[in-house]
Design a protein that fits this description.
11 strands; 0% helix; four-stranded antiparallel sheet
Length: 128
Amino acid sequence: QVQLVESGGGLVQAGGSLKLSCAASGSTFRTYAMGWFRQAPGKEREFVAAIRWSTGSTYYADSVKGRFTISRDNAKKTVYLQMNSLKPEDTAVYYCAAGPIGEWRPVSALRQYDYNHWGQGTQVTVSS
């Protein structure tokens, strides 16, 4: 059974950095894409970044491009989200997700409903 456990959230001042981790277990994940999503109070959950586990190819939401970096460590079965130049509007609960992806499907084509495993979330608060 796939399990995803996020960690690394917290309170940071605007302009600061945080690194989120997502420890994955229960699968080899070689045919999976891993994604980070976030949900701010009163808003719908939105896509942040994704990575194809096998090749490391990545895709980002425009709002975080150039500031956030998604990566994975195969040996540790862990996916990371390095967040730099944080803004108050980045405040949200951040969720890690995993979903199967076909060999020829670009990671940018995945939608939320394609991710069928989700973590419990970790709170990120950016103060102004």
